[in-house]
Description:
Largest sheet: 6 strands, mixed
Structural class: alpha/beta
Bound molecules: manganese (II) ion
Strand order of the largest sheet: 6-7-8-9-11-10
Amino acid sequence: MTYFDVFNGDADGIISLVQLRRAEPRTAKLITGRKRDINLLSRVQAKKSDYVTVLDISMRSNMADLKRILDAGARIFYVDHHNPGDIPDHPNLNAVIDTSPEICTAMLVDEALDGDYRAWAVTAAFGDNFPKLAYAKAEGYDLPLRTLNRLGMLINYNGYGASLEDLHFDPAILYKRLAPFDTPMEFLAADISIYKALEDGYEADLSQAAQSKILDKSQIGTILCLDNTAASRRISGVYGNKLAQENPDKAHAILTQQEGGFLVSIRAPISKRNGADTLALQFETGGGRTAAAGINHLPHDALDRFITAFKSAF
Length: 314
Ligand SMILES: [Mn+2]
């Protein structure tokens, strides 16, 4: 029999698995990828009596492969907080899914383990951008919250990129480096090199992003353009969040140059979190949520149309 551990390559996915495997060690095939690489179940070839653990990837996006694996006779333990679609009613599927707005996968794992690895769960909540949840769950524990916040953010930052080559650490390797420790404090005390490497990468990417070209700046907000580099692809999402926090009344669009056009990341003003999805959907490859949306490929000749649409969207 084979075990498969399938997890999102961001902080929430990695730390969900760290907690589970502290509680229940097992040798498993690790299946993961960069943060946006979510069709992970397509890579699982499971047979009858195999056991598949799935963490922090949308069930809706993996439904066909979920059914294929269940039909093959394998058992699945599935923990997640994204909209699942219709959860199959199958005796071999144990699904713990909660889509309430203030929960992340690592905190669902924490609940299942009665808070045994709370410091890890708090780190993941910070990393998945749930600071309120992190502070609430840290209450009564004596935790170095600023450090855990920074560590969670850095692990999350590591997941962004257009390919695994863009990332500082393959998420499977990052998982293996964290997994030996009961707490993030023990990890940092034993092995500061990862934290340092991520922090150096983050600061370098950030200073490169600060050199970006302004394509348009108005009362509405700012449209920036980043060069076609791995640094841009790693930082663009995190940079958009940072600019939005610093200028809460302005909208932002971060364009990253790519072959034939741009990858676009859109952030509505924090003071009025809507309009981002409507703007993105005016373009063929756009999509997202009201506060944060994106366009996978904006051709060069659509740039003027985008700038005009941006100004009327917010
Ligand atoms: Mn998550």
